[in-house]
Amino acid sequence: MPIFPLQHGKVAIVTGGSGGIGYHTAKHLARLDMHVIIAGNCENEGQEAVRKIKEETLNEKVEFIHCDLASMKSIQQFVQQFGVKNCPLHVLVNNAGVMLVPERKTEDGFEEHFGVNYLGHFLLTNLLLDMLKQSGTHSLNARVISVSSAVHYVGELHLNDLQSRYSYSPHGAYAQSKLALVLFTYRLQHLLTAEGSSVTANVVDPGVVDTDLYRHVFWAVRMVKWITSWLFFKTAEEGASTSIYAAVSPELEGVGGTYLYNEQRTKSVDVSYDEELQRKLWTESCKMVGISDISRCL
Fold first, then answer.
1. What is the DSSP letter of 235?
2. 106 vs 73: CA distance, rounded Å
3. Range of lowest pLDDT (216-225, 258-267, 270-279)
4. Tally of domains within the chain
5. Residue 231: inside a domain, yes or no?
6. Which domain CATH number covers 129?
7. Which of the residues 23, 118, 153, 174 is marked catalytic?
8. Stretch 84-97: mean pLDDT
9. Per-residue pLDDT at 208
């Protein structure tokens, strides 16, 4: 991994930072002297991750705040708790997720892949956006990084059935949630640019990583097309490298709206560049989570 400059005085939030890719992302940011907040839904795992990161990095500015992305109420409470700290926010890493779970709903009635992987992060990002805008400067932008997956290449976005109510498939629902994150990132960057905000939004593909998400997974035939390109699983630490690069690399200063794989800008699936689809998804997402659509003001 490249050597990045120290990040004195900077604050980062990493969702799902208690394990896997998120843990290694949080640890590396802490090693660069960032104040790191791990957002997760398990207190015990979160506090253990904080203890280990503090021990390994000798950085005491690491903490855990409960945030269940399957609950809009929990997300709102997390943002309130973070706000009480009255500290800036320079980096938001939307990393947490579920993968190929059986058909079930979140607390708010959303299909779990779409609700946790996408809508939870959509709401969290929007609620933290003002803090990010206030923390970014013209020469040092705040950054939003969302973790997607190569599976988005086979994903289809069903605007008339985002909850997969008519035909549920774990693979299809997972792929749709990851495609939605790419569309969201591009739309967010468009809105930030139109506002002249000192915030950038990029999406990363960690590759096929050996984490708990991959246990007991049987891949559908459609997946063979993309998984054969990555013949070996990466470790979670290797998988975190592109998230870390997106969060702190000077090369990406002021650069947004890109899809990154192996620290390189890469083309995402063609449909992800459909600006009308990006707009429709954004508007529908605002309705689903009950927030005002900032794009209507632009």
1. P
2. 12
3. 216-225
4. 1
5. no
6. 3.40.50.720
7. 174
8. 96
9. 66
**Distance from C-alpha of 181 to C-alpha of 124, rounded to nearest angstrom:** 13
Rounded distance between C-alpha atoms, residue 67 and residue 72, angstroms: 9
Three-state DSSP state, 147: strand
Phi, psi of 282 (to 5 degrees): -60, -50
Residue 14 CA to its chain's centroid (Å): 8
**Closest to 97 (Cα-Cα) out of 114, 110, 82:** 114
**95: exposed, middle or buried (Cβ count in 10 Å: 0-12, 13-18, 19+):** buried
Annotation says 186 is catalytic: no
pLDDT for residue 236: 61
Beta strand 35-40 with 62-66 is parallel
Is 201 inside any structural domain? yes
Identity at 40, one-letter amino acid code: G
**73, part of any domain:** yes
Two tokens, residue 62: 């690491």
Domain of 151?
Answer: 11-207+236-289
Global pTM value:
0.91
173 domain-assigned: yes
Q: pLDDT (tens digit, 9 = 90+) per residue, 228-238?
A: 444 556 576 77
The dihedral of CA 191, 134, 4, 82: what is its sign? negative
E strands of 77-175, at which residues?
91-94, 142-147
Q: Tell me the mean pLDDT in the region 114-130.
A: 97
